[in-house]
From TrEMBL:
This is Uncharacterized protein.
Length: 224
């Protein structure tokens, strides 16, 4: 009995990839130009067992791919003719349609599909993924979508901070340069805080009253 328990407990547990570690984030530049036209070497250098279920657990990897392709189709259609040209959206969806039943069956998150996944289902998904025309569309989606994402999030985050002065101030560490804004997170103090910390001192020309008297001065320099 003890030997059986010992053998069972020594069997390695095959854990999945942690959600925050999945490979898509490896293809997003933190700032600047979005990655464009990644080569196969670029891709291979970014996927490993710790961040890619296709490497760690192929059954989970292919399911996640199917889920992602199917669940994002609606969003793609919503921006047809708005962000993405109709020809691109229609072509992408056409390729999905050629393997839609298989995509749904291989997607283990779709509980509405009856029947078990067969070899023909898996092969249909693999053929779609490896289709050269579909790969060209996927690359175009990566290039345009990556740039759009980078531009969008780079504008949305500071815009949100600017319109939520209290929450912005709460996130700042306590130091001399932040104490005024943290004490009174008003639009005026936000503007002053940003200008003082962004504009080079040599270009500062405008002065405002200050409560701090340093060396007999009651003026606070603020860049215009």
């Amino acid at each position: 009995m003890y030997q059986a328990q010992q053998s069972s407990s020594s069997t390695p547990v095959r854990r999945g990839v942690q959600y925050q570690r999945h490979y898509p984030k490896s293809f997003v530049n933190a700032y600047g130009t979005a990655m464009q036209n990644p080569t196969q070497d670029d891709i291979l250098s970014r996927v490993w067992e710790f961040n890619c279920e296709w490497v760690k657990r192929p059954k989970v990897g292919i399911s996640e791919t199917c889920q992602t392709l199917l669940e994002n189709q609606r969003i793609l259609e919503n921006y047809r003719g708005v962000v993405f040209c109709p020809e691109f959206v229609d072509a992408f969806i056409h390729h999905l349609d050629t393997a839609r039943t298989a995509l749904r069956k291989v997607n283990n998150k779709d509980k509405t599909v009856e029947g078990t996944t067969t070899e023909s289902d898996v092969l249909a998904v693999l053929r779609l993924i490896n289709n050269s025309s579909f790969n060209k569309l996927a690359t175009d989606a990566f290039n345009a979508g990556g740039a759009a994402f980078s531009m969008g999030v780079s504008a949305m985050v500071p815009s949100t901070l600017l319109t939520n002065q209290k929450q912005y101030a709460d996130k700042l560490s306590q130091k001399k340069s932040t104490e005024e804004f943290k004490a009174d997170p008003s639009p005026t103090h936000l503007r002053r805080y940003l200008l003082e910390n962004i504009t080079p001192p040599a270009e500062c020309t405008t002065q405002y009253p200050s409560n701090n008297h340093v060396g007999g001065s009651s003026r606070l320099t603020l860049c215009s």
